[in-house]
Amino acid sequence: MRSLLPVGGALLVVLALISGPAVAQPSQVATPSSAAATTPAEPVNAFKQISSASNQTDNHVFTIPAGKRLVIDYVSAKGEVPAGDSVSDIHLNNPVVHFFVVSTQGTDINGKSVFSAAQSLHVTLGPFPRPTDVVVRMERRTFGPGNEATLAVSLAGSLLTP
User: For this UniProt entry, which residues form the secretion signal (predicted)?
Assistant: First the structure.
C-alpha cells in the first residue's frame, strides 16, 4: 500500500505559495478609532394636550428633526368628550399608522366621558429630509360647536443621529 503523504504535503506547499501569507497585513485591519463614532441617544418624553370641536382630533405631539431617527417605546392618550359621545379610535396617524385599544374610563368630575389608550411598542421612524410631526389622532362620533373634545398624549422614546 502506498502512502499519499508526499502528494498531500506537496499540494499543501503549493497552496500556501499561491495564496500568500495567512496573517493579515496591518493596513487591512480596522482599528477602533477609525470605526464610525456613535452618538448617544437623546431621551424623548413629550406631552401635549389639545382641544377641538372636530370629530377627528389630531395631536402633533412631537416633531422629529430633519436627519434624525425617533424610536418610540411608549404612547399613552386620554380623550375627554361631551357626555353621551364616544371615542371610536385613537392611533398614530403620521408618519406611520398604528392603532391602539381604546378603553372607556367612565365620567370625570365635569361630566365628560373619558377614554384612554396606552401601548408599549418599538417603532423606529426616520430619518426624514425635513422635520416631520408625529401625530396621534382621536376619532369620535359627534362634532361641531359646543362639542369640544380634549386629547392629551404622552410619548416616550429616544432620538438618534444615524
Answer: 1-24
